[in-house]
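testing teh design pipeline on a random one, pls ignore if ur not involved
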């Protein structure tokens, strides 16, 4: 955090930085880091989290209006790729979960959420020797991306998705060791404008 101190000076465009966080715009965040002379990796790690409370508020406000037939690989609220998938209940329904806003949406079985691949021969399930409970890795041989998957009776709370994701880091390590990765950035970049305003309701946006 000490490396980010130069970015606290008054001439940093906070509204633009918040917009970059909302859009997961790594290039814009890196440009701000260069302008302010701070470590770009440190700024990426911190700024990408700035919009998370706002996105959780958006999810709480919009969740009853989300389309129930949403089947894209990315989040219907903020456009993020899923943090993990949940196989729920005795009916074993598949649900994708967003780590940034806590949303959930239907996922397709035997289907890569990142590239849309549904060729069974190119989809792999990997398990670690000391796994995270019922967690496994579902990897795609075509795009070399992976998603973690957990079997549970019911889904975790929206506020716990990011924590569950971090708690299963052993699965991420195993995926990297096998040559798989998570996609960078958002699955769908949201078109949003952010304007600095009064302290109460300081940001206004539309997507």
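output:
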């Amino acid at each position: 955090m000490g490396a980010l101190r130069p970015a606290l000076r008054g001439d940093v465009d906070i509204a633009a930085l918040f917009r970059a966080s909302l859009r997961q715009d790594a290039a814009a965040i890196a440009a701000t880091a260069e302008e302010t002379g701070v470590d770009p990796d440190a700024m990426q790690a911190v700024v990408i989290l700035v919009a998370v409370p706002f996105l959780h508020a958006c999810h709480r406000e919009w969740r009853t209006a989300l389309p129930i037939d949403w089947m894209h690989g990315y989040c219907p609220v903020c456009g993020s790729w899923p943090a993990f998938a949940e196989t729920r209940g005795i009916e074993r329904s598949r649900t994708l979960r967003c780590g940034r806003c806590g949303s959930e949406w239907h996922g397709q079985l035997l289907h890569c959420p990142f590239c849309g691949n549904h060729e069974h021969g190119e989809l792999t399930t990997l398990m670690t020797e000391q796994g995270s409970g019922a967690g496994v890795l579902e990897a795609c041989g075509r795009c070399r991306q992976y998603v973690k998957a957990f079997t549970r009776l019911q889904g975790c709370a929206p506020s716990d998705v990011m924590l569950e994701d971090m708690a299963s880091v052993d699965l991420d390590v195993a995926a990297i060791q096998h040559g798989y990765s998570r996609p960078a950035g958002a699955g769908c970049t949201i078109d949003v404008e952010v304007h600095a305003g009064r302290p109460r309701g300081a940001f206004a946006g539309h997507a």
